[in-house]
Amino acid sequence: MITEKMREFIATQLNTALTSGSGAVGQGGNSTNPTNNALDVPLLTGLSTTVSQTGGVIDVKLTISGSALSGKTIREVGLFNSTPDMLQRINFDAVGPITNSETLEIFITMEVE
User: Do strands 57-65 and 42-47 pair parallel, antiparallel, or not at all (unpaired)?
Assistant: First the structure.
């Protein structure tokens, strides 16, 4: 068992790493080997993120202009620290195609338990 203070400590370290890092989206949709350090098929990298923390919960938001993804579909999102090492990759069913006039927002919630 870890204490509530340890949960907050771990979440704070993750928050710091993600705040100084970036996000990326791509077209890869399969599972990733945990040793991989990049998205399978990256489309956009170096995306700015909005990161907030409440206790042991981290919320990350990526906002992407449709013009950056015009006509494309995405199947994966990654979060990176400043090194940049991939800290998290999530694959999902395809979203898109995205039109120029749309804005894509991706929300990721992580909880340290």
Answer: unpaired
